[in-house]
Amino acid sequence: EKDDYEPPSFAKKPAAGDRWEGEDEEDVKDNWDDEDEEKEPTPPAEAVPAVAPKKKKPLSQIIQEKEERRRREAEEKRAREEEERPALTPEEEQAEKLRRQRMQEEADLQLAKEAFGLTDTDGIENLQPVTRDDFDNLRKALAAKLTSCEKSPHYMNFLDDLLRDLSLNMEPEDVKRLSSSLNAVANEKVKQQKVSITCASFKNLRT
User: Fold this and answer.
1) Domain ranges in the chain?
2) For residue 159, which of 58, 90, 166, 167 sits 20 to 30 Å off, Cα-Cα?
3) Are 109 and 70 in contact (CB under 8 A)?
């Protein structure tokens, strides 16, 4: 009987981490008390502020900025010329003053055309002033146009007749106001003339 005895076989138990064939189980955690890590929420993207459209500048501001820029450039140019130019006689100074005045009038005319959207081929009659700035630009354009003819022998008669025509429908007080303005200009020119004569006489005495 002892020869027929067979010892019981002990089947090897599968390891805890092994899966049976066909099983669909999740991976076993190393520590059963570990909890699933919670994913940190993604912070919301910061809202990009909308860019406000640029406001258009009013026409009067654009004109003023152009005038200031041109005036500044003209002053800088005049300062450089005065530093480089030798001393002038009173006659030369007067001629230089007239030249600068002519350049300023031409610049004013060009600025007036730009303000009204006119080209070099458009006439002054196309200017349609409405605001105070519009009338200022028209004045500069007219002054630049008229003074370009001041060398003509007919210029003074033309101005005399023009002022008379312009004052026909004006009130007496307005005509007096214009007369006072012209008298003030005349007095200032007389003073300048006296200074020029005095300087010329003093220079002749020294020579």
Assistant:
1) 58-151, 168-207
2) 90
3) no
Cβ–Cβ under 8 Å, residues 100 and 79: no
> In this structure, which amino acid lies at residue 94?
Q
Query: Contact at 8 Å (CB) between 109 and 141?
Result: yes
Mind listing the pLDDT tens digit for each residue in 125-136?
666 778 888 788
Tell me the pLDDT tens digit for each residue of 32-90.
Answer: 455 555 556 666 666 655 666 666 777 667 777 877 887 788 788 877 777 776 666 77
* CA distance linking residue 105 with residue 16, whole number of Å: 103
CA angle (86 as vertex; 95, 97 as ends), nearest 5: 20
Give yes or no for a contact between 175 and 69, defined as CB atoms under 8 angstroms apart.
no
Nearest to 114 by CA among 73, 66, 71: 66
- What does each C-alpha distance from 10 to 7, 13, 19, 200 come to in angstroms? 9, 9, 20, 139
| One-letter amino acid of 200 | A
Other C-beta atoms closer than 10 Å to the C-beta of 112 total 25
